[in-house]
Design brief:
Blueprint (H helix, E strand, L loop, with lengths): L1 H14 L6 H32 L2 H26 L4 H25 L4 H30 L4 H29 L3 H19 L16 H13 L2 H16 L3 H12 L4 H24 L7 H17 L6 H29 L5 H12 L3 H15 L1 H22 L18
Length: 424
């Protein structure tokens, strides 16, 4: 037993050193519980909407409602996040998410649930997430410091995607046995543990001092100018925008693929979403185990140009096994890109700009999703899910090639010193 414990300790210290920090370990445990509930709700929400409406377009509108606040408010959130203790902000956002989950559960149990209710709840959750995401991202460095930052980001992605494996399985089981309402209720209960762990954190938060005469708009412009003048940040943001818009529409396309192409039900849908999670977990694990070498811009670029191939191939999947294998590959690529890019942005940004940089990351990574959801939902509704997959792949490849061409020759100079204002 002692030998096993020693080996486990050595493994953690070698590959997951972020867990040696008490604050991060406490925060991470809360996320392990909460994210499972989040994925239980995510899978049942998409299935519930499709069951109520029979419309891929309305399913796309659900994504629009949930992510549109990120698009509109992310830049404002980045300015405000550094002006308040981040733990306090997370306490508020997690309480809001808990309340919305319990409210939706009550509507389902009462039999009064309608598409309009789900749409409003998704919008309100999106508003909460707009402040939650940049707060969570920029707080990592307060939890672990700069040296273990990439390791912490990778662990966050691993936790997220492990939940993506476990959550859909639990969600599919609950939907098939006791009904959708219990999926929402379970998610609401997980937030209780999250709020408890947040209260246990002992932090010395970075709070940016207000500057006399500055406005919110002025601080937003200052943050955008900082990114535009820094080619490493600019390239990373552009590639994340492409993948975030065109590579993360599985919440719309996978339910349609399952029902209309594979002719399957909830169990297959849950398995396919779990395959996506397995691939994402492997991607996060791979990045985490090589985190000591630091994030690489070339990794983000190369993987972003491979994503379109996996998306296009999904158009030809006609069996659950083929679809699952391709979704596993998509999950690996997308999370490897987001984990590497997230770390690259945080480590390249100065302290006073980090929250604003991460708000832009939130905007292009998640805030662009409404447009991707609407585009894929409309395409799948009008032309079929096959065309939607091919269209996403073709557009992603064309845009990625355009960014590579625009930044051609930049490798001969230090990326951090290369201006990139003409590209944004």
């Amino acid at each position: 037993m002692t030998v096993y414990a020693d080996r486990t300790t050595k493994f953690v210290h070698t590959y997951f050193h972020a867990l040696t920090h008490r604050n991060y370990r406490t925060f991470w445990l809360g996320q392990c519980v909460s994210l499972i509930g989040t994925w239980v709700q995510n899978i049942c929400q998409a299935w519930l909407v499709l069951s109520l409406t029979k419309s891929p377009l309305l399913l796309g509108m659900l994504g629009l409602a949930q992510f549109l606040p990120l698009t509109v408010l992310s830049l404002f959130a980045g300015v405000l996040v550094d002006k308040f203790p981040k733990r306090a902000i997370l306490m508020v956002t997690q309480t809001v998410a808990m309340t919305l989950a319990f409210t939706t559960a009550a509507l389902v149990f009462s039999g009064a649930i309608r598409f309009e209710h789900i749409l409003v709840m998704a919008f309100l959750l999106g508003v909460s997430n707009t402040f939650d995401m940049p707060t969570r991202q920029s707080m990592n460095i307060e939890l672990v410091g700069r040296d273990d930052l990439m390791n912490a980001v990778a662990l966050n992605s691993m936790t997220f995607n492990l939940a993506r494996i476990v959550g859909p399985s639990i969600g599919a089981l609950l939907m098939a046995t006791v009904g959708v309402g219990w999926c929402y209720a379970l998610n609401g209960m997980t937030f209780i543990f999250v709020l408890f762990t947040l209260r246990q954190l002992k932090l010395s938060p970075f709070i940016r001092a207000a500057r006399a005469g500055t406005t919110v708009w002025g601080e937003i412009r200052d943050g955008l100018s900082y990114i535009r003048s820094n080619a490493r940040l600019a390239q990373t943001v552009l590639f994340v925008a492409i993948v975030g818009t065109l590579g993360f529409n599985f919440n719309v396309l996978v339910p349609v693929l399952t029902k209309e192409v594979l002719g399957a039900g909830e169990a297959t849908y849950g398995v396919l979403m779990s395959c996506l999670g397995v691939g994402s977990l492997i991607g996060a694990l791979t990045i985490g185990m090589r985190s000591r070498s630091g994030p690489k811009l070339k990794l983000t670029i190369s993987l972003s140009l491979i994503v379109p191939i996996s998306l296009a191939l999904l158009a030809f999947a006609r069996t659950p096994a083929a679809a699952g294998a391709l979704l596993l590959a998509c999950g690996f690529l997308n999370i490897a890109i987001s984990t590497n890019s997230n770390s690259l942005l945080q480590m390249s940004a100065a302290d006073e700009y980090r929250a604003r940089v991460m708000s832009v990351y939130t905007l292009v990574f998640a805030g662009s999703t409404p447009f991707g959801n609407l585009f894929t939902g409309w395409t799948a509704d009008k032309y079929g899910v096959d065309v939607a997959f091919i269209s996403c792949g073709a557009l992603a490849l064309a845009l990625g090639a355009a960014v590579v061409y625009a930044f051609r020759g930049s490798g001969r100079r230090e990326p951090l010193d290369e201006p990139a204002a003409h590209l944004l």
